[in-house]
Specification:
disordered N terminus, 4-stranded antiparallel β-sheet, 290 residues
Length: 290
């Protein structure tokens, strides 16, 4: 009796483990849909500089040759491709800063490239820079053109009608109050700078845009922020979109149709089809959105 019980127990265990004799299993082979499929024609390639570059925060394309462009990384310096992204070359390794916030190519001369250092993001860990750089040989060599205490550069616009006129959106220090923030303008190719928009020592400018039809019409995005070890402030009543119609001489804060309470970061874009149309994505305490 014990032998019968033992044999029954063994049969149950074999059934549960799937180790039944072959004659009780379905031995009919299933068709392999990938059996005759060749993958030899597929290959992977890096379009980089993803790992080395880190966070990509800026892109500037040569208007006369779209296969050539610069990629700026918040933590990985500046890279250039001349073959539409097949290969990238680091072009900023010998400068003092490796954090990039903005890149702009002169629309009339692609050999002239402007770079703003200092990452333009707003998280806890962002690296500061040492001002604005200019290259006149397509990125082979660079010269620091000032604004060393701006810490973080958010945007650069070159006037297409006068390449010596350049506007820079300076974010300013993330962790302390400072005066070198706002919108700066040069009319001599970067030899001297004038601060044309200053909101406060706690509010810097994140973006600067120019109307493609009228070089006297400018839009600037201001962002009030401060980061401490124990907290972070990412908005306030001083944030907003500012407009100038006289090449930066005077500015007006735009409020109609926009959130009026504490406002955080704002991103704007001008329609290339109809520059009278602007889009803004607004972070706000109330009524934020697009």
């Amino acid at each position: 009796m014990k032998r019968i019980q033992f044999s029954l127990l063994v049969a149950i265990l074999l059934l549960l483990s799937g180790s039944l004799p072959a004659k009780t299993k379905n031995t009919e082979s299933k068709p392999d849909s990938l059996k005759n499929l060749s993958l030899s024609g597929l290959s992977f390639r890096s379009i980089g500089p993803a790992i080395t570059g880190g966070r990509v925060v800026a892109l500037a394309v040569n208007p006369f040759d779209h296969s050539e462009y610069f990629v700026g990384s918040g933590h990985g310096s500046l890279w250039k491709t001349t073959n539409n992204g097949i290969t990238f070359t680091p072009v900023f390794d010998h400068e003092k800063s490796y954090a990039i916030g903005a890149v702009s190519i002169d629309p009339t001369n692609p050999n002239v490239v402007w770079v703003g250092t200092g990452e333009n993001n707003n998280q806890n860990n962002v690296i500061y820079g040492d001002g604005v750089y200019k290259s006149e040989d397509g990125g082979q060599s660079w010269k620091n053109m000032g604004l060393e205490n701006s810490c973080h550069i958010g945007g650069i616009v070159v006037d297409p009608k006068d390449p010596n006129t350049v506007y820079v959106a300076a974010y300013g220090s993330l962790r302390k109050a400072n005066d070198e923030r706002g919108i700066f303008k040069t009319t001599d190719g970067g030899k001297t700078w004038e601060k044309v928009l200053f909101v406060s020592k706690y509010t810097g400018c994140f973006e600067i845009h120019m109307d493609p039809r009228f070089n006297n019409v400018l839009y600037a995005v201001a962002h009030q922020r401060m980061r401490k070890l124990f907290t972070g402030v990412s908005g306030g009543p001083e944030s907003g979109i500012y407009r100038s119609t006289d090449s930066g001489e005077t500015w007006t804060k735009m409020t109609q149709g926009l959130p009026t309470e504490d406002v955080g970061r704002i991103g704007i874009a001008i329609s290339p089809v109809n520059p009278d149309v602007l889009f803004a994505i607004v972070e706000a305490k109330k009524d934020g959105g697009v």
